[in-house]
Amino acid sequence: MALADTRKPTPDQRRTAILDIAREAFLEEGYAATSMSRIASLVGGSKATLYSYFPSKKDLFVAVMDRETNHLFDGIFNVKLSFGEPRAAFYELVHRCVSALLSDIIVKGYRLITAEAGRFPEISRTVYQLAVRRGLERMALYFGRAMVEGALRPCDPMEAAESFLDLTAGNLHTQRLWNAIPAATPEQIDAEARRITRVFLAAYGNDELSRNARERLKS
């Protein structure tokens, strides 16, 4: 019969557990309604231990958002996105972004920040830098490389990234945020990704990609 593992968790393991529990508490109860006492009770330790890892609720919340947005971006960008077949490459990028924005964790996060932004503007500004701005910067780097390789027309990469975000966070994402649809089907995501790819390439693709995309938009 195997003995129970009585080893104490390492500080990193403890921190991860706190972030996991805090994430669920914040998403389910909101920022204002979630206290450090509540999180400490869910973690199973004292408030003093919790504060030794995170000096304030704001620090804990920001750490949660920092980790989750890094996971989001890793899922989108930590793949080889080649421009050998540029239309397919951009479709894959769009599909990854749309799928991520429609995931339960991101939808809940959007709703949480929107609900709390009026009362806690400093926190919402911090999360904007961690989430939206950092994502735009990583996207701009990708688009800058696409311009060097000739897949996109020369322009300001940040402008292209901002336009890309406007498209991917569009109608289907809004329907999901407002609970107009319970979830997007694979067919809806595919159709949305194809539409966005055509619109983006029509505006920012090289001459051939832009021309072909405009023709497809007419059909």
Question: What descriptive keywords fit this protein?
Answer:
mainly alpha; 219 residues
Provide an overview of this structure.
- With 219 residues, the chain is mainly α.
- 74% of the residues lie in helices and 0% in strands.
- The chain has 11 helices and no strands.
- The protein has helices spanning 11-29, 36-43, 47-53, 57-77, 86-101, 104-116, 121-148, 157-168, 171-177, 186-204, 207-218.
- α2 crosses α3 (47-53) and α10 (186-204) crosses α11 (207-218).
- The longest helix has 28 residues, at 121-148.
- The protein starts with 10 loop residues before the first helix and ends with a helix.
- The mean pLDDT is 91.
Q: How many angstroms separate the termini? A: 68 Å
Average residue-wise pLDDT: 91
Give a count of the beta strands, DSSP E runs of length 2 or more. Answer: 0
Summarize the main sheet. none
Q: Radius of gyration in whole Å, from Cα?
A: 21 Å
Q: What is the quaternary state of this protein?
A: single chain
Count, helices: 11
Strand content: under 5%
Portion in helices: over 70%
Low-confidence stretches: none
Write down the secondary-structure element order. Answer: HHHHHHHHHHH
Helix-and-strand structural type: mainly alpha
Estimate the global geometry from the Cα principal axes.
Answer: elongated
How would the blueprint of this fold be written?
Blueprint: H1 11-29, H2 36-43, H3 47-53, H4 57-77, H5 86-101, H6 104-116, H7 121-148, H8 157-168, H9 171-177, H10 186-204, H11 207-218
Helix pairs in contact: 1-2, 1-4, 2-3, 4-5, 4-7, 5-10, 7-8, 8-10, 10-11
